[in-house]
Fold this sequence. Notes:
Blueprint: E1 3-4, E2 21-24, E3 27-29, E4 37-38, E5 40-44, E6 47-52, H1 54-57, E7 66-69, E8 74-76, E9 79-84, H2 86-94, E10 98-99, H3 107-120, E11 131-136, H4 138-144, H5 150-154, E12 162-166, E13 171-174, H6 176-182, E14 194-198, E15 205-211, H7 215-220, H8 226-242, E16 245-253, H9 255-266, E17 273-279, H10 290-295, E18 306-314, H11 344-356, E19 360-365, H12 368-385, E20 392-395, H13 406-410, E21 413-416, H14 425-430, H15 444-449, E22 454-456, H16 467-476, H17 494-501, H18 503-508, E23 526-529, E24 547-552, E25 555-558
Parallel strand pairs: 2-7, 3-8, 9-16, 10-11, 11-12, 16-17, 17-18, 18-19, 19-20, 20-21, 21-22
Antiparallel strand pairs: 1-6, 2-5, 3-4, 5-6, 8-23, 12-13, 13-15, 14-15, 23-24, 24-25
Amino acid sequence: MTRSAQYISTNSPRRDLGADLVFTNGRIYTVDVDQPWAEAVAVKDGRFLAVGSKEDVQPLIGPETYVRDLGGAFAMPGLYDMHTHPDLALGPRYSDYLDVGWETPEPEQVKQAILSYADAHPADVANGGWIFGKHFVHYTFRKAGIEPCRDWLDSFIPGRPVAIMDRMWGSCMANSRALELAGVTAETHDPNNGYIVRDPLTREPNGILVDGAYAMIMAAMPPPPQHALLRAYREGARFQSARGVVATKYLHVCENRLDALRAIDISGELPLRVEAAISWQDDIFPVARRWELLSGERHYYRSKRLNANAVKFHFDGTAEPKTSYFLSPWPNEKEWRGSLNLTPEHICDMVAELDRKRIRVVAHCTGDGASDIFLDAVEECRRRNGPGMRHQCAHSTILHDANLQRFKELDVIAEFSPVGWYPSNFTIGARSAYGDKLHKAYNVRGVLDHSGVAVMGTDWPVSSIDPWIGFEALVTRQNPWGEMDGQLGDPVTIVEAIEMLTINGAYSMGIEDQSGSITAGKTADLIVLDQNLLEIDPKGQLHKTQVQMTMLDGAVVHDPNGWAKDSLQACRVTSDVPDFYPVVI
Length: 585
């Protein structure tokens, strides 16, 4: 039996009940518990008018209705990628920064890439001669018996300022000239949200700056040009749309980045909904107008598809520099538990204050100590404020078993990033310091078993922006390409994975009553796929899924086969997929 809804604006005259779009003869998985499957849908004014059988939608077909026979194709709600960084992934490329070009480069490859870049880009006054880019990997240096530091960089390029990010964006390696321009000396105090690695006797910086400390390097450099940010966000969003993503969270933004997103939005080129999270700390780059944005300027960017009502925190670090903050010492360490970038008191007060302002906190937590403190802060926030915003534990890499039930109790979103979900050379190598903790990483199963809400974030450029790779890893916890045997963690079912990437994502954005499932009255978001996810063997197959059409708010935003080219609802967004290749690990 069909369910239908009619939405008439009070500011416009009543219109006929004819649908704008009708899709029939599909295998439509709705993610609606009251009506899991449908054969047809009708769309009007950007919302599902009816969901049911062909007979149910037939009366809604008028003379101007566009009708499409899906030919038995599988369709479902669009995907939600709840953590990604197109500006960090593509901005350096379009700024013509250094790109080493290897996923796990050896030290000699890093050296040659820097020297080649220096030859091809002579120093000039405009950029101060800076060489900046990505990336090096700590563990490949350890394997080679080389310490990544200023002395190593100075040995082959001492004259120009050089700074290169690590693969995880958790630390930066800078040479002496870069440290000099940034004013980083033995007397420089560590920031609250990071630290400078130093010589134990002289306290001179050795060239590695961890977490918020490398923002001092960024502050000394020219900012990325606006054209690079525009292109990065535009092409990143287009690729996401082509892979079926209808909503996303772009984390770590500043005023320049919000300006770029707004420009894309008002030009009609934003093919998905974006929740942008403003950087609280100067983690990756300085945020000069943080307080102005938080006090209200963020609303200037608000539209149907864009909002900036979230803040990104870095509570701890990452695996390679051993800065994930644990409740117990790191493996093979007597006392070192990692780095907590903010005091528990700071965290507690800020979570409560932002919650009162209806601003979502997205907290980077890789160690079980960081997530424990975050959950404590939300608990105190609920005591002070009562029920409020759904705050998000980003990465949730290692969780303490006793905290699994608290995600449900406190209405905190557990977000998992796919970089560690399956065995690979990078996963095993870069996270080898976790020891036995690695096999407890990304405990999605544990959160779901305790009725918590879990979502997925690709965390591009740390891992691939293609959500289908993480999708498969969720339900197998194995390497999608069979490049390495074994399994990391406990898998979830395909139905649970679909819910994580659809209705749970909408829930984490506070729009589950409007989107996230194919339900009459909700926004008409729908993707058509080349295979039925519930009938295939996911191992080695799910990540190959191709999206044949993406529809957002009743507008077709990706249509490579021309299925809806004649639709009056067709969006101005181009369906051409950018020619970059996302990182795969």
